[in-house]
Amino acid sequence: MNKIKENLNYILLAIVALLVCILIVMMFSKKNVYNINTGNTTVLKKNYVITHYDNKIFMYKNDNLRMKKDYDDKNPFYFDGKFLYLIDKKDLLQYNTKGKMNSKLSFKSNIDYIYANKDHIIVDTANEFSIVNNMKILESFNIKDEVSSLIASNGSNYSFNTIGKRDGRIFSKIYMYDDKGLFYKNIFIDKPVFRMKYVEDKLIVVFDGYIKVFDKAKIINSKSFDGTKDVGISDKNIYVMTKTGELLIYDNDLNLVSKTKVDDSLKIYSNDKNCILYNQNGYFMFEDSKLVEYKASDLKSITGEDDFYLVFNNRIERIR
Known about the structure:
Largest sheet: 4 strands, antiparallel
Strand order of the largest sheet: 1-32-31-30
Distance between the termini: 53 Å
């Protein structure tokens, strides 16, 4: 009798373990199609979709609406997979994935724009900009004839870029911080910055016409080319579309891996894993180092962290 009870207990434990595994798979499995209407700005992270149109912002978990809120189409937003950040005049609002406000951070004047990467956000106001992390202001700067434009984050390290004009010439400033504070600041004349990203603790900066790789405050590699139109950076490669219509692919050591002539209408979207080119007529992906075209009518944009998703007016589809 005791043996039978013992066997039944094992069977029940096995059933419970199986049900738990099924639940975990269901929670973290990736959907292939999201049947929702989308705006011009749509972000998909961790099965959450944020889309912005008709002066409203929508948050979905899979296809289920979590939040619908009035939000001016001109206002930017940021979603990091855990929190959604919105602007309300002088306030930066943080919402959780249930659509409830979690925190509020107030500034002296109205917020004009936000730029973000991972857990660091630049908040631009009329007279200054601030670096925000975990809804706390790390640094604030008074700005004259400058605007902030990019930020890159990697744990306790972060870097940001400002751009301005003086005596008829454009200049870019790059600031780098670690957990001890500011350790690098430099100005670059006539070269706006297109993209910044940390890869293996090194900062890759793509300017108009060249790339520089920083190891802390030291430039350890550099490469020049014929002007920059668009940029994508994954963890393995740097993708540059030049102003002459060439797609250049460099590895992290700035060795030229590929050089291909591409359509001038194409845009680049990259995540940590890969890169894709697209326009409203379809997208291009690399297969065995060859660029292959796939047709897709009325394609609005691309989104996705680990996979690529095609954004259409009334659905979002994963590329399989």
